[in-house]
Fold this protein.
Amino acid sequence: MTFRFVPFILAGSLFATGTSAQTAGAFMQNPAFKDPAPAKCETSFDMQHCAAHDLRVADAQMSARYTALRSRLGLAARQKLLAEQRQWLADRDRGCVAKGKRYQGGTMGPVVVAQCWVDVTQARAKALARR
């Protein structure tokens, strides 16, 4: 039980300092959420851990689709896509953090933010694939 308490503190501290400072990139790299994902995602910590795993998968898929699209474009279109992607990343983080603020002070806020990152990243991967 002590072992799980320490990662929970580490994971919680990312949000305790203000969810607005948190990014999906930092969340995916949190050492408390190393793969593999838990067998069951029942506690709020496990839900975050599962979401971190799902986000890494979605991010890899999105990155692959971004790279494939980028390889088919000319220089000007690649630059435009890069600017679009950077803006999308900032909007994703800002939008999902805003959703989690409704649950400020509770254990579900970080879960809502993490699941939002997963959903939005999966949607972006699909959008890139359609182009």
Notes: The chain has a mean pLDDT of 85. The first helix runs from residue 2 to 16. The radius of gyration is 16 Å.
